[in-house]
Design brief:
- The chain folds into 2 domains: 40 residues; 218 residues, Jelly Rolls (Sandwich).
- The strands form 2 sheets. Strands 1, 3, 4, 6, 9, 10, 11 and 13 form an 8-stranded antiparallel beta sheet that branches.
- The longest helix is centred in the first third of the chain and has 37 residues.
- The chain is 21% helix and 27% strand.
Amino acid sequence: MKHLISSLLLISLLVAGSQMFYSCKSFGKKSDSTNAEVMVVDPNNSLTEQEKTEGWIMLFDGKSFDGWRSYGKDSFPAGGWVIDSNALKCNGSGRGEAGGASGGDIIYNKKYANFHLKLEWKISAGGNSGIFYLGQEDPAFDVIWKTAPEMQVLDNAKHPDAQAGKDGNRQAGSLYDLIPAVPQNAKPAGEWNTAEIKVYKGTVWHYQNGVQVLEYHLWTPEWNKMVADSKFPSLNPKWAEVAAEGYIGLQDHGDDVWYRNIKIKEL
């Protein structure tokens, strides 16, 4: 009988020990899972190893305004532009273009000639903004759009500019007031869109949400005629003489707009 009792006690101890072991093991797995969740990294505003190998660089790190400054000034604007959820955001004044001076247009502090630019944008309801390239700082002008081509950023559904111009050439993705984006595939306000601008020896391509929406050629007779028939000569008689190298800029049009994943590769 004593041997039977001893055997039963030994079996009980072994069962209890195994339960403690698996309980500790399960606890360890739960702890690892918790740690993994804490260490999740924001995938935006960073380059893959392949992109680094291909020569891409980030123009915005999601944390600071490094590399950016006000158009025509040496420093970044004191107000108007903020970092919101790892995106570069322009806080709208609520007064459209007339009230767009709270932050003003900003530019990246390096000139580019032949390049491939990629970024993402999100516009507020009824909002308007723009992406500029080959821009120049001319003391005669207080805004970059008077010196640079613009890829339009717009809420096509609510902003009146979508119905202005000619054949939709003021809608999102278009070469503003000159060439419409075809097909027109912009997403609604509040959703992220991808944009790409490729410039190579005077030929320019716009891509919106992964689709090429236009192509044109600077400094050609066709270009000069198209600009001559637009509003730009009345604002800057030399607007058609787009420089071969210039700044990339983002517009403060007085509306909320967000930009992220801004990257460039020189060609």
